[in-house]
Amino acid sequence: MLSPKERLEQLEKVLDELEDLSISVPIIVEGIRDKEALRRLGITRNVIALNRGKSVFTFSEEIAKRHRRAIVMTDWDRRGGMLARMLKEALMANGVEAIDHIRMQIVILSKKEVKDIESMPTYLERLKTADTLQRRACLVRAKDI
Q1: 95 Rama sector, left if φ>0, alpha if ψ -120 to 50, beta otherwise
Q2: Could you report the per-residue pLDDT of 87-126, keeping only the tens digit for each?
Q3: Do the beta carbons of residue 110 and residue 11 sit within 8 Å?
């Protein structure tokens, strides 16, 4: 089992990869709140909200006109999982490579603590707090020795 520090470090690496990819690859999220959550995590480029009144296929056709690759970053609840599959299939049908490994890494690293993108900034803060408390406890124990 990963410590809060290890989990935090791995999540930060995944988010850094997401930010790097966002230079040239759009990140598709479910809605405006997800877009805002990514912004709070420092990912500000190329984030597109899916829920704009269009079908998944129509949305995918529009993405295909401008991009050859897209990152699928839907929530990891039941609805988000179904949407991710539909989106991936629609993107691929339109000749767009659907990148979903980042979403899967975040799902694994956040375990059952978080089920959506909106909760990620708060979760990362909790991990940072847990890591800080753990380091302080180690320092106190070291002083007692």
Answers
A1: left
A2: 999 999 999 999 999 999 999 999 788 999 999 999 999 9
A3: yes
Q: Which residues pair with 70 in a beta bridge?
A: 98
Which residues sit opposite 72 in a β-bridge? 28
Spatial separation of the C-alpha atoms in residues 66 and 60, rounded to whole Å: 10
Domains and CATH numbers, the chain: 4-144 (3.40.1360.10)
DSSP string, 51-77: -SSS-HHHHHHHHHHH-SEEEE---SS
Place of tokens 């809605």: 31
| Three-state secondary structure call for residue 21 | helix
CA distances from 99 to 33, 84, 94, 140 (A): 21, 10, 14, 45
